[in-house]
Model the fold of this input.
Amino acid sequence: MDETVAEYIRRTVLKIPRDEIKMMLQKWGFLSEAQLQTLNFHQIKDNISQEVVQLCEENSADIKQAAVLDIIYNHIYQNKRMWSVYQMKKSGEELEYFDITDFKKKFKRRLRSALKNVTITFKEYEDNAIWIRVAWGTPHKKPNQYKPSYVVYHSQTPYVFISSSVLKSTLPLLCQALIVASNYHDIRDMELRSHSLNSLKDIVFKRYSQNFQTCPPKPLQGGNVEPENADIRIVEENRSEKERIHRLNQEVFGSGPQPKLEFAQYRLETMFKSDPKMDVLDKKEPFRCLVKFSSPHLLESLKFLAPAGMADAPLSPLLTCIPHKARNYFKIREKKGLYPESFVSP
Amino acid sequence: EKADPQKTAFLLRKAWTLYSVTPLYGFRRARLRDYARLLGAFIAAEKQKGLAVEVGVELDIKVALSSLADIRGSELDQAALLVQLSSRSRGSSRNSEDKPVWWGWFCSVFGDELSENVPEHFTCLPLFLSHGAESYTALVGSWFQKTFDCCFRRLAISPLNLSWMAAMWAGCKLDRAASAVELVFSVPRLAQPLDISYAIHPEDAKALWDTVQKTPGEITQEEVDVFMDCLYAHFHRHFKIHLSAAKLVKVSTAIASAHCDGIVKILHSQYLPGVLKLLTELAISQIQ
Done:
C-alpha cells in the first residue's frame, strides 16, 4: 500500500471520535466484519488508527477507498465545513431524465481534460444527494488529499452545495464540470452560506416554516413575567403591545423552527439622511457601511429582538427576507423614485 | 510630544491588557538594575515552588527594566517604565539568544491630576499595559505589589468611553488606505446571542465627524452623542434595530482598537500619545 495512502487513512481515523470509529468503518465496508472484530476500540486513538492502517494494508487499500472513508466522515460531520449554495440554469425547458452514470462520466472527463492529477470520488445517499469529493493536483504534483473540495448535488434540483477547497483557483473548474455533467448551461453563486448544510437545504427547498401560518395566536410563553400592578390600565396596554409583537413575529417567522444560519452580511451604499435641524452630514454620495450580524442561530436571535424591546415590530424586511430570498449576503442601494425610504437589493 | 519611533515600535500592533496601578511607594529610578535582579530571583523562586509557567522545556527567565523617557505627557509625568521578560533555553549552548516572552510597562501621559496631589516618596504611573502569558503578569504584578505597596486592577472600558474613542479616532487625519471604523455590539440576554458588526468607510465616518465637531482640537460629550446618534439612526433606518440598546463592546479604527474588557491595540505611532492620554485618564478615574 502506498505510504501516502496509509498516512491519509491514519489521519482520517484520528479525526473520528473514538466511540464512532467502529460505526464509520462499518459504513465504509472496506474492512470485513471479521477484521473489525480484531480491532481493540478501547485503546488510545493513535493505536486504533495504526491497527486500522495495518488491516487496510492487508486489503491493499488505494486512494480511491481512502477517499470514500473521507466522504463518510464529512457526511456525518458536515457542519464542520462552510457550505455555499449555487444554482444552475438550463437554457431550455426540457426535463431530461437524470442518468447518474452519464453524470459521473461527463464530470470526470471534464475535470480530467483540464487537470490531469485529480482524485474524484462519488457517493450516493438516500435523499437523492450525490456527494462528490475532488482532491486537486497540478500537472507536476499528485493531488493534495488534505485540501479537497466537496460538492453535494441533489439531482432532481438545480442546486449544488459546495464546500470549497482553500485552493481558490479550483472553484471555476469545479463549476464548469458540474454544469457540463448535469446538462445545465450556467451556474451562479446564490450568496448563501452557512455551516449547517441541512439548513441551507431547508431554505432552498423551502422546507422551513413560512409566513402567514393560519394557526391561532398562542398565549404568551416564557419570557418576562409581568409584575403585579395595582393599575390595571398599564398592564393591559403593555400586554396588547406584547401580543401585537408576538403576532407580527408569527406572521413573519411562522411558528416552526428557523433554518440555522450563522451570519448575514449587508454592504450598504445608501444615503445618510438626518434631521436637518441636526446640521450634520449632507453628502450627495452614499454613506458606505458593512454590517454583519453573527449568532450561533441567527434567525432565532432576530426573532427575539422585538419582544426584547431591542427592535421595532415588524422587523425590517432586510432581515426577514433572508430565508425566502435564499441569501445571506446583500448589497443595498437606495431606491430612486416615489418611495425614497425603501431599498433595493440587486 | 513625539516619541522616538524606533524605541516605541514594539508598542504598536500588540494587544495590551490594561490595568490601573496605585502610586508606587519607595520606587527609585536609580535602582532599576537591582529591581530586575530581585524580580528575576522572585520569578525563579516561584517556579521552583511549582508555579511553573512553561510546560516542557526548562526556561530561565531574564528580567530587564528600563525607562522609556519619551513616553510621558508633561513635565509632571514620570517617564514610562518597561519590564521585559526574556527566556533563554537552558543547556542550549548553540543558540543562546534571548527570546522576549512578556512585556509590561507603566506610564503616565498627562496624569497631572494624580501626580499633583501625591505625597513624597510616591511615584505615579497609573496606567499599566501587559502583553504575554497571564501567569507572567500575575508574577510581575505580585512582586510590584509586595515591593512598592501598590495595587493593580484590571481596567475595563465602558461603552461610554468606547464611543469617545470611536469619535476621536474616526476624526483623525488619514494618510494611507485606512481601515474602516468598526463598532461591535453584543446583544445580551437573548436566547441565542447576537453580535452586530457595524463598519463605516473611514472617509465617510470622518466626513460625518467633521460636521459634528464644532471646535477643532476639542471634543465635547454632546458632540460624541450626536455622532453616535447619527450612526444609530442610520442603522435603525435600515434594520429597525435600536443599536443604542445593545452593548458596545469593541471599537476598531486605523488608529487603534479597544475592547471593553480593557484590551487595546495601537496601530499608529503618531497617535500613541493621544491614546495613552485617554487611557491614563481612565486609569486615574478607576484609582480615585
Q: What stands out?
A: The mean pLDDT of chain B is 88. Helices of chain B lie at 5-8, 32-48, 112-115, 134-148, 159-170, 202-212, 221-239, 272-287.
